[in-house]
Write a structure and sequence with these properties.
Blueprint: H1 38-48, H2 51-56, H3 63-67, E1 71-81, E2 89-95, E3 98-104, H4 112-115, E4 119-123, E5 129-131, E6 134-136, E7 139-140, E8 142-144, E9 150-152
Antiparallel strand pairs: 1-2, 1-4, 2-3, 4-7, 5-6, 8-9
Length: 166
Amino acid sequence: MLNLGDDYRQWGNVGKKELVPAGHELNKPEHLFDKIEDRVVEEQRAKLGTGEDQEDEVPDISIEDFRKMDIRIGTIKQAEKVPQADKLLKLQVEIGDEIRQVVSGIARQYDPEHITGTQVCLLANLAPRKVKGVQSQGMILMAENDDGELAFVSPISVVKDGSPVR
């Protein structure tokens, strides 16, 4: 490597030709990256799939798997917003002789005062968990359209609370 000293780093030396002596040989250039052929990219895409494909792909389940789900009809008795959570509602849902507290991400589309009395489908045997510090004891089943709008999955006619969905 050519030792030019510290002089070549001075601003005033920019553009001077005598910093590199005539006849000096430069290192042979090397590629920093190998070219990736289109077929290699396509092979990797096929292996990984796209995020959309993975989200849309739902595995088949057996009838035994379905029978493990305890889906019941319930009526929303009370609804309120979860503090410091824009999209969460805390619901009190009556399923027969029991009331379940459920946290649901529906606050952007439903006002708490408008959904009281609505019959819904509740996945009752989902393991309880805390959401934003609030205990949730199930999941309200919702339908979602292509625009992300949600609708309750509800019976067409009034059904006794706690009735199983089969």
